[in-house]
Amino acid sequence: MESLLSSQPKFSFYPQHNRIANLSLLLRCSSLSTLQSAKPSSSPSSSTSTSTRKKKKATITVTPTSPSLNLPAKKKVLVPIGYGTEEMEAVILIDVMRRAGAHVVVASVEPQLEVEASSGTRLVADTCISTCSDEIFDLVALPGGMPGSARLRDCKILQEITSNQAEAKRLYGAICAAPAVTLHPWGLLKRKQTTCHPAFMDKLPTFWAVKSNIQVSGELTTSRGPGTAFLFVLSLVEQLFGESVAVELGGTLLMCADGNHPRKEEFNNVEWSLDHIPNVLIPVANGSEEIEVVTIVDILRRAKMNVIVASVEKSMQIVAARDTNIMADQSIDNAAASLYDLIILPGGVAGGERLHKSKVLKKLLKEQESSGRIFGAICSSPAVLQKQALIKGRRVTGHPSIIGKLTDYAGSGAQVIIDGKVITSKGLATTTDFALAIVSKLLGHARARSVAEGLVYDYPRS
């Protein structure tokens, strides 16, 4: 930890004296080798869930987990969700805050705990918002999405909780549509410089609206969308836990934008274009990395692909790396009855090991490779492909913790490596680039640019 900090210039994740935050300073100043030397910890193994109830959409149940850093005290964070909440923003907030050591309470503003998020993922809250009315939180953080932000706005209990939070000068924040659609009608943006998703900027008070990715004004922090969610949560982490924790997490999340290395590198270029809507299989297991699962599914569905999340466990419900419970669309046995244009393995060490043990998935991957169809993996899961002899002679990348195990590691600092019909990536904060690279290859760069704009994610014009 000390070596990581001492090797970097002094900086702050959030602005002092009303300066606009520029979290990308960390990314410019941190070299990839420095972040790799921090040796991010692998995902812990998780116990198998007993629920077998089948859903048509992927369902996420978010439950509190133990802190991953040794911290003296827990901070209590409220993340409310409603119908149409943006799932990337919600899960990144929850996951990263738990990594920092916060006790995160996910509360539904709906009559039921289960809510369908904006891209069809179903989130199951820990509790109803009514149980939180007498609680004191160190931070109230509102994810965006539509109509999710409007559902939060219409919840009187949440309005009272957040208003009390602001009055007591405790931290509160909002991202995407939530600053304009939720906080503004509540009167919680008065005399506060604020940013939000570009589509809602005209709803902010004109004099106080700013076009920054992150804006901190006193106790209020706002941000623009899914593409800025990592920066948003790290700003909040710094304010709650301090700069050193935020810097350590930035390294663990692989948030490095080293200008000396490309975002994407391609070898043996071949066309991926199809004459139909792409069908994609995302197999999941106990210990799969939830940020990667949710981000890939969200972005590919935004691009109008057919995405199936399939459990390789006996249960349809799996327990992900940060104790997030995900209800798959199908079992791997049922999913195996169909053909897929693309199969992508999410990361997570424990999850990857369980994916490797699935005989059905192993057969699907072998058929995918022998038929010349597309497949790939992210984070620790390229090691799964190597164990199954599927990437011999293919240049690949992966999480820094497993690069030494990859015989055909590309030796490149690129976030994403494509070799023919195999695609791999480093993980976590590189997942958005990974998913957009898939969109670009299958549906064209213009479609990827369009999706990136909706995410408020900086993506090359060509």
UniProtKB/TrEMBL annotation:
Q: Where is this region: Disordered?
A: 36-63
Specify the DJ-1/PfpI domain's residue ranges.
75-239, 280-440
Q: Which GO terms describe its biological process?
A: glyoxal metabolic process
Q: Tell me the keywords, alphabetical order.
A: Repeat
At the top level of its lineage, which domain of life is listed? Eukaryota
Q: Which family does it belong to?
A: Belongs to the peptidase C56 family.
**Protein's name in the database:** DJ-1/PfpI domain-containing protein
Instruction: Provide the species name.
Output: Aquilegia coerulea
